[in-house]
Every structure is written in C-alpha cells, then in structure tokens.
Amino acid sequence: MKTLLLSATVAATALTASAAFAGQAWVGQNHLNYRSGPGQNYPVVGTFTPCTALDTYDQQYGWVQILYQGQYYWVHGDYILDYACTYTPPKNTYTPPKNTYTPPKKNGYSGGYSGGGSNY
Question: Is the pTM here over 0.70, yes or no?
Fold first, then answer.
C-alpha cells in the first residue's frame, strides 16, 4: 500500500511540475527552427514564422518543448517571447537592373573585301 501511495505522489508531483511550466509563448521577430529533440544535434523538422503562437510543455537545458500539429518538438528558449507580437513580412524590394549594354562604336569598316591578307 505504501508503494502505491508513493507512486501516486511521485506521479502527481511530476504532473504538477510539468503543468506548472505549461503555457503559451510566441516566436520572436525571426524565423525559428524546431527540432525533434532538445539540442542542436537533433535534426531540424521545420521552421516557424515570426510571432507564431506556441503551446509550451517542458524545458531542458535552455530548450523548450512545444506542441505543434499534434506532435511535440523543441525550440531554443532564447528565441521565444512570453508576450504576443505582430509580424509584417518585408515588402519585395527587388529592382531590376538598368540596361547597361552599350553597343560598340563603328570603326569605319564598310563590310567589303579589301583584298589584303586573311586571318581565316
């Protein structure tokens, strides 16, 4: 009976600790990679756009576990905010290059055969 009670207490404590961290965060003003685990050695699964709302669940070594489309992923805590933000993508500022072609000047060659030697 003591083992069952102890197991229930440990489980409740773990659930409370995890639930205490659960909350909402937002991606900062830059795109943010999300990974399959808490570290740079885990593969990048995708990228969030700035100001995306995230549901957070756990934290390890500066990495924050998030739930996205029914799956758990990890983002680095330095790049998320604890407040909502707005993001306006930059406008396309592409300007096509100006025509810089200058045709060659005529050198007086009339196009006829002058009778001299040949370079062919």
Answer: no
